[in-house]
Predict the structure.
Amino acid sequence: MMNENVETIMIRDLITLGPKSTLEHVNEIFGSKNIHHIPIVEEGKLIGMVTTFDMWKIKSTNADYGKILVKDIMTTKLAILEPDEKIGTAAELFLANRFHAIPVVKDGFLVGLVTTFDILRYEFRKEYPDPILFKDVLDKGLDAAQH
């Protein structure tokens, strides 16, 4: 059931930062992009990850974020996957470790990110290939009201 490669579901268009970025920049991205994980790279190579949980753990005020660098709070001990590893392997890592994002790396270079949401969406689409989403219902109601 989860024997496809993670590259089939991974996010490829990633927002990344360098280790000398400030938490002010991180906070801005988290707030505007509705994401919770930012891979930290140097010359394309993955060196860490910063998450909304990391931001919460430091218990600092927003006023201090401009003074704190990503390298000072990022997680550097990361589970990683290769693009040809199975989606089931990602699911096992999520269940065993209780984190929500795994970088996908090829030859040390970041090529993608898999999240628990990606796996949930993957399984949902297998079960319901043509779902009717709430947004679709709202759009139909709007169209009917305008005509």
Q: What stands out?
A: Residues 134-147 have pLDDT under 50 and may be disordered.
